[in-house]
Amino acid sequence: MKLWTIHPVEVWEWLQQQGFYRGAKELVYEDFLDSYDWLIIEMEKRLGPRPEKESYPVWAWKQWNGVHIRPDLRFSGFLEKGTRGVRLEIDIPDEQVVLSDFDKWHYVLNYWYLEENEEDGELFDKEIKKRGLDYYQQKPLPDPYYHQKIVDSWQRIFDIEPRNEEEKRSLSIQAIFWELKLEQVRKVDFFVAR
Question: Residue 23 forms beta bridges with which residues?
Fold first, then answer.
């Protein structure tokens, strides 16, 4: 599977020296650790165990912003402004990759309920409000049933089929895997983040 991963240039240097690169916990914002722990469990279900107990996901793009296949380095937000970076075109075996919807991943990061459709979302919000719960203010919800409903809803991030033309035009598909090997790199583009 052809993918693109973006990193500070130091990751490219590490990859050349060590021959492999793995994600690390210290690269994750503390507020997102619970979300990453959930994601790691999902990855282990789909890909098998981590190479090491400390391994965290390596992120890449399968499709960026709908019409673009690879990320356009003229846009900002890939790295902190002014950072020297690399966009690596890589080839990872399909069975070593989990794909998910970039926008839906934000529901996991924010501890939001990921509705199946508008009606489902309205019904869930009405149910929890009746019980005096608010997942925007209470993280995690103190009611185990509704907490689990939120967590279960996150399975929808793995549904990467657009539901309509609007989604198709804007869909960004992210890829996660345990390890990037030097021999999987096909092309290297250097840039300075905007």
Answer: 56
